[in-house]
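Regression test case RT-17, inverse folding.

Input:
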């Protein structure tokens, strides 16, 4: 049957009918809020390339955590922006239990126990060269980096991180980290693998936020994926699942919806998308220029992630979206 018997617009005529036939929804339970933490008390710093996002001292980050929990956001992803003089060639600061991240985790866990805490496993916030792994003779060495990442994951688990999220793209790190966690009695610590992480230009503002942009020697193309590839993402995901990943992530998000869809369809596992700093900045700057309004654009982007198959989205707009969802 076709027109005039079939009229696709019938179901779209009224708001209640559109709601009734909607195939996807976004709720605050699908959002993860990244927070960038700094030292100090009652300190907040703006980030010029990320309007609306601030680096926060632990006390202020804790207030935001409480707000996020009250809005129904299940988890935070914490990132430390550490002082330049703590960065080193080997990123040793990453292994200290009482480093900035460790103290943030302990404090937020105590004050806001109902929210899940996620932390990256990767050395880039801690290295003087801005890379995620150990740099030896101009090369990011795989196996030695994995050994350090296991120690970093352990330090994070000891501090109280619920989900460790390896974002380094070394080979074999998921299995090694799982083994190290289990051997230390951390069987319940979950692993969210940044499994399909691309060497993307869209991470620019995040590198400003962590002050790693100016430090980065070269690029990350020998470990992060080539933007041209889709099949390779499925292999990465398959390997990380076989090594014990509990959840997988595709990153960046909006230009990679095809990858999200393929991952969810092929594996049917918890699949997260990272709406990264550059994508968030695009919405903010376009809105500032009058191209559209920020919030409806954010809500559209988030719903599209769900349509593509993402179970949850890490987004710097998580609080804005959750507030809007609560308002109805
Ligand atoms: C580093 C890391 C990056 C992001 C999260 N973890 C940047 C990078 O790989 O250079 C990017 C997040 C964003 O852009 O919002 N391991």
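Golden output:
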């Amino acid at each position: 049957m076709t027109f005039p018997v079939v009229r696709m617009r019938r179901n779209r005529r009224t708001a209640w009918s559109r709601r009734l036939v909607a195939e996807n929804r976004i709720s605050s339970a699908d959002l993860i809020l990244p927070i960038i933490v700094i030292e100090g008390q009652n300190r907040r710093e703006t980030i010029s390339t990320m309007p609306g996002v601030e680096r926060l001292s632990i006390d202020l980050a804790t207030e935001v955590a409480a707000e996020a929990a009250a809005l129904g956001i299940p988890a935070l992803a914490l990132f430390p922006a550490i002082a330049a003089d703590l960065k080193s060639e080997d990123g040793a600061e990453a292994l200290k239990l009482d480093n900035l991240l460790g103290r943030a985790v302990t404090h937020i866990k105590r004050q806001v126990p109902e929210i899940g805490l996620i932390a990256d496993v990767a050395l880039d916030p801690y290295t003087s060269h801005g890379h995620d792994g150990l740099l030896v003779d101009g090369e990011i060495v795989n196996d030695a980096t994995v050994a350090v990442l296991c120690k970093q994951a352990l330090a994070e688990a000891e501090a109280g991180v619920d989900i460790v999220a390896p974002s380094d793209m070394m080979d074999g790190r998921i299995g090694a980290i799982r083994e190290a966690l289990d051997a230390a009695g951390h069987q319940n610590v979950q692993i969210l693998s940044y499994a399909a992480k691309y060497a993307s230009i869209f991470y620019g503002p995040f590198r400003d936020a962590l002050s790693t942009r100016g430090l980065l020697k070269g690029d990350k193309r020998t470990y992060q994926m080539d933007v041209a590839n889709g099949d390779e993402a499925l292999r990465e995901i398959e390997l990380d699942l076989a090594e014990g990943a509990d959840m997988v992530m595709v990153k960046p998000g909006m230009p990679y919806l095809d990858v999200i869809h393929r991952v969810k369809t092929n594996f049917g596992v918890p699949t997260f998308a990272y709406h990264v700093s550059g994508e968030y900045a695009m919405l903010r700057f376009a809105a500032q220029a009058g191209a559209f309004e920020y919030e409806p654009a954010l809500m559209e982007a988030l719903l599209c992630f769900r349509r593509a198959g993402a179970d949850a989205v890490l987004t710097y707009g998580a609080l804005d979206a959750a507030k809007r969802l609560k308002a109805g």
